[in-house]
Write a structure and sequence with these properties.
This protein is 60% helix and 0% strand. It is built from eight helices and no strands.
C-alpha cells in the first residue's frame, strides 16, 4: 500500500511513535480491553472504521478474558494489519491476497516472542508477573490488579504493540489521520 508519501524525518517519527505509545498505554490503563485499546489507539492516528474496535471486544485477556489463547494486544494488532493489508470481500476470489498480511504479522509476532517470551495471554502474564492470573475468578483478578495489571503492566504491553504496529504502517506508507 504505497501512497508515494515521503518518510517522516526521524525526530518527527520518534515523536509520533511516543504519542502512539502513550495513547495505547493510557487507553488500556483507563478502559481495559487490550485488543480494543490497540485498535482504538491506532485508529486515533490511522484511518480505521469504528466497527473494527467493536469487533475486537472479546479478544482481550486471551479469548473472552479466559487468559487462554493469544494476548489481546497481539490479536488486536493482527486485526489492524489485516484491515490495512488483508483480502477484501471484493477480492475474495484472489486466493493470493489471503496471505498478503502474513509477513507483517510475522514481524509483529516476533516482537511479542522476543519481548515477552511468547504470544499468549498466559505466557505474557508469566513473563510480567512470574505467574498467570485467571481473570474470570474474582479473587485472582483482584490480585492481578494489585500486582499492577492495569497500573503499568498491561498498559506497557499495549503501548509497545501500538508502536510496533505504527512502525510497520509507517514503513508501508499507510496514510495517517491528521492529529
Amino acid at each position: 500500500m504505497s501512497t508515494g508519501m515521503v518518510a517522516l524525518p526521524l525526530s518527527e517519527r520518534e515523536a509520533l511513535l511516543e504519542q502512539i505509545y502513550r495513547r495505547g498505554y493510557e487507553l488500556e490503563q483507563r478502559y481495559y480491553g487490550c485488543a480494543q485499546c490497540v485498535v482504538a489507539a491506532i485508529q486515533d492516528f490511522f484511518p480505521i472504521d469504528s466497527s473494527l474496535v467493536k469487533a475486537a471486544t472479546s479478544l482481550s485477556g486471551g479469548f473472552a478474558s479466559t487468559i487462554e489463547g493469544p494476548c489481546g494486544a497481539f490479536t488486536g494488532g493482527i486485526l489492524v494489519l489485516s484491515h490495512f493489508f488483508g483480502r477484501s470481500r471484493e477480492d475474495f476470489a484472489n486466493i493470493g491476497q489471503l496471505r498478503r498480511p502474513g509477513p507483517l504479522v510475522r514481524v509483529f509476532w516476533d516482537k511479542f516472542k522476543e519481548s515477552y517470551g511468547g504470544d499468549s495471554c498466559r505466557a505474557i502474564q508469566e513473563h510480567l508477573f512470574g505467574r498467570a492470573y485467571r481473570f474470570l475468578d474474582s479473587d485472582e483478578y483482584h490480585a492481578y490488579e494489585e500486582a499492577g495489571g492495569h497500573i503499568d503492566k498491561c498498559p506497557a504491553v499495549v503501548g509497545s504493540a501500538c508502536v510496533w504496529l505504527a512502525e510497520l504502517l509507517l514503513d508501508k506508507n499507510v496514510p495517517r489521520r491528521k492529529v
